[in-house]
């Protein structure tokens, strides 16, 4: 008996979330997605301009003549945001032994040794680590004003203290 096209569309799918594992490296990241029972033709990958990687698949969806309306098939759909510092034109995927491996190369910005040392020294000076600690210059007039204000605050505090005790 032949399966009609209308009956094929009525196939039931069991949605599942595949196991995913990110491996982070300095120059690239690898996303491994475990898809046991799937074939390469049943998996679809898309990467859009917003930096979203969409991975989906339907097991047995490629026109398998042996499927019937009562058969259960698996399917999945996963979307993830990929870092902006990746080289989108060099993303590669490989499917082997039920594992989809997606390699996402990173943009590597290499500074010259001198500029790296300069930026490190700037960061140290900014937070007061190493180098000279910068202190603001204080005029005699401003210093005298600060002493007078401090003394006034101490006297006011003492007066409140004395009023509370009595």
Summarize the structure.
The chain is 27% helix and 30% strand. The chain is of the alpha+beta class and 166 residues long. It has a four-stranded mixed sheet with strand order 1-6-5-4, with no helix packed on it. Strands 2-3-8-7 form a four-stranded antiparallel sheet, with no helix packed on it.
The largest β sheet comes out as: 4 strands, mixed
Straight-line N-to-C gap: 106 Å
The fraction of residues in strands falls at: 25-35%
Count the E strands: 8
What series of H and E elements makes up the topology?
Answer: HEEEEEEEEHH
Annotation field: number of helices: 3
Radius of gyration: 33 Å
How would you state the average pLDDT, rounded? 77
- Provide the structure class: alpha+beta
Can you tell me the overall shape? elongated
Question: Which blocks of ≥5 consecutive residues have pLDDT under 50?
Answer: 65-69
User: Percentage of helical residues?
Assistant: 25-40%
Strand order of the largest sheet: 1-6-5-4
């Amino acid at each position: 008996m032949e399966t009609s096209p209308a009956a094929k569309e009525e196939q039931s799918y069991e949605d599942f979330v595949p196991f995913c594992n990110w491996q982070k490296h300095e120059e690239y990241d690898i996303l491994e997605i475990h898809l046991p029972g799937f074939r390469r033709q049943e998996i679809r990958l898309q990467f859009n301009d917003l930096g979203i990687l969409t991975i989906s698949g339907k097991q047995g969806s490629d026109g398998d003549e042996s499927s019937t309306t009562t058969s259960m098939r698996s399917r999945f759909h996963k979307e993830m945001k990929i870092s902006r510092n990746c080289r989108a034109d060099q993303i590669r995927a490989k499917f082997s032994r039920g594992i989809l491996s997606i390699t996402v190369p990173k943009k590597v910005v290499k500074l010259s040794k001198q500029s790296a040392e300069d930026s490190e020294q700037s960061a140290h000076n900014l937070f007061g680590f190493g180098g000279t600690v910068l202190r603001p210059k204080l005029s005699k007039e401003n210093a005298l004003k600060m002493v007078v204000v401090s003394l006034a605050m101490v006297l006011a505090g003492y007066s409140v203290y004395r009023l509370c005790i009595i």
